[in-house]
Amino acid sequence: MSKQLLLIAALSALATANLPSCRVPEPATVASDEPPTAAEEEWNLPRNLSECWAELDRVLPEERRRAIRDNEGGAIGEHFGAGLWMRNAWLLWGGGHELTRYLDSVGRDADGFSRVYDGDSRSGYILETYRMHLLHPESAEEEIVRMEWRQFEEMMRRFDEEEAPSKTSGD
Question: Which of 17, 69, 102, 166 is the most buried (most CB within 10 A)?
Fold first, then answer.
């Protein structure tokens, strides 16, 4: 095994320390677009962002919640920590259960394109809205979703401006 793979494995183990263990479902359970099965319901999966935030409040130590809240760069630092745990414990790579359908619907833009479409984008979206929830605990889930959209649209606008070819005089 290469040194890089060993380093990634070690960092992943450290990042998920102190988080509850999770069972990985059978692939057929994960890949379905059908309503939740009895097995999925048994797992007590969160159904919306408020339930995700409540579960994160329950499982994350105060210092991790503070670090997520205070990270101006967003929640990306938890991709291999709480994000990895969520992707496995909440079946975010699969689809067809209530949480993934919910995330797909709130992540859709006016053109019908969903930017919350796979395990990575789902856990990132949950973590970023969780960060906003920690910053604005008085705000309702719907307002947090609107704030996150405004932030995303502003980020994309800045990205488009930076990527646009610069116009030079004399050409």
Answer: 102
